Amino acid sequence: MAQYDFKKITVVPTGNDLIDIVLSRTQRQTPTVIHKGNAISRVRQFYMRKVKFTETNFTDKLSKTIEDFPRVEDIHPFYGDLLHVLYNKDHYKLALGQLNTARNLIKRIREDYVKLLKYGDSLYRCKSLKRAALGRMCTVTKRIGPSLAYLEHVRQHMARLPSINTGAPTILICGCPNVGKSSFLNKITRADVEVQPYAFTTKSLFVGHTDYKYLRYQVIDTPGLLDRPLEDRNIIEMCSVTALVNLHAAILFFLDLSGSCGYSISQQAALFHSIKMMFRNNPVLIVCNKTDLQTLEGLSGEDLKLVMEMKSAALKTIPVSTITDEGVMAVKNAACQRLLDQRSERKMKSKKMPTVLNRFHVAMPKPRDQKERPVCIPQAVLEARAEEAAHEERKTEKDIENENGGAGVYSASLRKHYILADDDWKLDILPEFLDGHNVYDFIDPDILQRVEELEREESAVEEDGGDFEIEDEDFTAEAEKDLQEIRKRKKLLIQKHRIKKSTAESRPTVPRKFDKDRKFTTERMGRQLSSLGIDPSRAIERARSRSVSRKKLRLRSRSMSRSRSVLSQRPLGEVVPGEGFKDSAQKMKAVTMARNATKKRNKDARRGEADRVIPTLRPKHLFSGKRSIGKTDRR
Amino acid sequence: MPQGDYIELHRKRHGYRLDHFERKRKKEAREVHKHSERAQKSLGIKGKMIAKKNYKEKVQMKRTLKMHEESSSRRKVDDEVQEGAVPAYLLDRETTTRAKILSNTIKQKRKEKAGKWEVPLPKVRPVAEDEMFKVLRSGKRKTKQWKRMVTKATFVGPGFTRKPPKYERFIRPSGLRFTKAHVTHPELKCTFNLEIIGVKKNPNGPMYTSLGVMTKGTIIEVNVSELGLVTPGGKVVWGKYAQVTNNPENDGCINAVLLV
Q: Which ipTM value was assigned to this complex?
């Protein structure tokens, strides 16, 4: 009933590899240093440990292998026979036996030499004894080298055997070579078996799974059988014979009606009759394949007679063509049904059945009178149902897609749901470049509002005509250009000055960590300066960032810059096209980030980002002193 | 699930990866460099093992090359001159060659009479008494030191029973008693595991012979019935002498050479 898994067998190392593994383990995992001057008991113990350790490792590895390999008697007879057919049971057992003998020999060597080591009275003697012990163990292992190689070969092949569940319902496909067994398997299951026109394409058993009535069935494809006596069969045919004999399954015997497999119907019938006794009480179905080439009715008289003979020995005969798929499902259903029936029968006959049957009871109420009581559905429900049926489904985008050719052919128009002022604009194409600029950089949702504002301001400025002395003058083209240049440079200078003024370079702040007691105030500075004889007022005001000169400069710059459009002095969060901000919120976020960064830097009295001065490289509290608890070997 | 020869089947259906052969070729070409890197970088016992393996391969390669280089030209062949061959005009009439081949038994009898034996190991290192025996203290106060324990391999016969412990002077521990020896036949060059019948002579002295101590050079008698030797008279030989060739206490086994 078990699912056998031969993939779990550990890899079998070769003889030399096993020796290397064990000896290097001994060298790594036992102490390696011993001296002549050590007490003799210690020397003995040292070498005895090595001998024992080596023996344990050899024994462990060999035991693991011996236990991992399945014992031919203990497993299901199907697998037992399969192993015998493939690997020769005797050879297999001999190899495992040799491993066992080697294991015992190594144990005996260890016992002998540990006994001898007890009499070792010098380091040299103990060392020689240990060397002799390990050497003998390795010689034993070298001698079983061929067995280990054979077992590794077997293991690799075994891991690729199909895992057949011997208890599950199974369908077995057999017949002459090339009749269409593998193509049938490919049709029913998802197994992808090679199908080729030459005989013996399938060289071993293949398994596929199929479903029928909520139950999973195994379908096993076998290599073709030739009509030979059992002794003459080769290994490939023996595989299929093993499956036939040992597995309880529904057998599908494939018959090639057209003879295109290379074997006539009489030959196939002969094969059928010779393997008939292997079927025992398994349900047999005869599948007449390749009906597209030759139908059952079109057969000649003798062939028909042979087929009828075969039919008498089997349950059913079904014509099938695997190429045209005709009859494939019928065969599968018939076989599965037969197996299901068999199972149910068996279960009914089993001893447990009455207990199960007694547990439930289907009660049929006795009718108390002959009155007819049909189904009763309220009218409202009926109406609702009718309405639903009449209600038309909304046509979805998916339906439109399917109508117009499917996923790859039709692409949905995402624009048709746009909400625009004028519906004609939905399908307009927007230009992307104009005069070397990206059009999108200049798109401003508030553009109309801005235009209005600008017009308003300009009209306001025009009324206020007095301050525009410079504007009244007529400038030549070069003078105009120079003026622009001067204004630009002035603007830059002002910006730079503003930045400079706001950093700590020009306005040094004492960071809070050095000024915990808040002693560095402007009053203190004022007092100290006045004690020196200097007027502190300007300094105090400068420190308080309210300088007189700045005010003046601001006024002057303001008057000078009146000529410029007032719009250049925008509110802070306003998005200027060309700056690269998505919207006002993003710009505010950027401004806030910049401000936060400068604030932190100013508190540390750093001039800018690149100022990484450490005031004290080795503060005393970190580089000196004892610790109250703990060690001081790390600072 | 992959079944049977699924790898070959996949290759048959889909062919190889586009770069498969190139990768394979390059990997194989890199193997040489990797081998060299491993040989140079490995430390300790691993490095020594690699070096040993490489040396063996080098020697093998050199031999094959030399073999190939041997010229196929013909050389002058010198007729082997027999030792002691004398040209005809110098032959002395008196010397005669022995025509009869003496049988083995007669040879043995002659040797015995002469008292000289040809042995594989004519000279052996003498073993001192304090190396051979370990002093065991006995008595209530552990002051008596007359007991000795043998520290070398010994042979005691099958019917051996110890003397009462109070009186036995030489103790032969059972852990050091051996009954079998690995005997090599010098001509056949094969080794058999034969039973020891007795210790014939220990070169270190008659006391050791009587104790049955086997050290290097000891002549022992072994049971050769499994070799199936027959005398010319038709009798089966079942005992022969052999000389011990190793130090049994260091190796844990007795290796001997048969004296034919």
A: 0.80
Q: Which ranges of A31-144 would DSSP assign to H, the alpha helix?
A: 40-68, 77-87, 89-117, 123-143
Given a cut of 90, whether residue A495 has pLDDT beyond it is no
Per mean pLDDT, which range of A517-526, B77-86, B129-138 is the poorest? B77-86
What is the strand order of the sheet B144-150 is part of? B133-138, B144-150, B170-171
Element of type H or E holding B181: strand B180-184
Q: Is the pLDDT of residue A486 over 90?
A: yes
> Residue A336 has which token pair?
């599965």
Contact state of A116 with B12 under an 8 Å Cβ cutoff: no
| Contacting residues of A for B3, CB less than 8 Å apart | 160, 162, 191, 206-207
Buried b (16+ CB within 10 A) or exposed e, A354-379: eeeeeeeeeeeeeeeeeeeeeeeeee
Closest CA to A556 of A619, A493, A512, A617: A493
* Rounded-to-integer distance, Cα A387 and Cα A410, Å: 33
Assign B53 to helix, strand or coil: helix
If residue B192 lies in a helix (H) or strand (E), which one and from where to where? strand B191-201
Residue with tokens 């798929």: A325
* Torsion from C-alpha of A169, A175, A179, A183, nearest 10 degrees: 20
CB A527 within 8 A of CB A620: no
Query: A453 touching B, CB under 8 A?
Result: no
DSSP code at position B257: E
**Token couple for B91:** 């032959």
pLDDT digits (tens, 9 = 90+) for A141-177: 999 999 999 999 999 999 888 888 888 899 999 999 9
Cα(A305)–Cα(A299) distance, integer angstroms = 9
Q: How many C-beta atoms surround the C-beta of residue A87 within 10 A? A: 19
Contact state of B45 with A27 under an 8 Å Cβ cutoff: yes
Structure tokens given for B150: 């043998």
All residues of chain B having their beta carbon less than 8 Å from the beta carbon of residue A105 are none
Contacts of A163 in chain B (CB under 8 A): 1
pLDDT at B102: 62
For range A96-100, the mean pLDDT: 96
Q: Are A155 and A12 in contact, with CB atoms under 8 Å apart?
A: yes
Stated pTM of the model = 0.64
Name chain A contacts of B128, Cβ cutoff 8 Å.
none
At A25, the pLDDT band (50, 70, 90 cuts) reads very high
pLDDT of residue A557: 45
3-state secondary structure of A421: coil
Does residue B67 sit in helix, strand or coil? Answer: helix
Q: Which residue of B has its CA nearest to A115?
A: B175
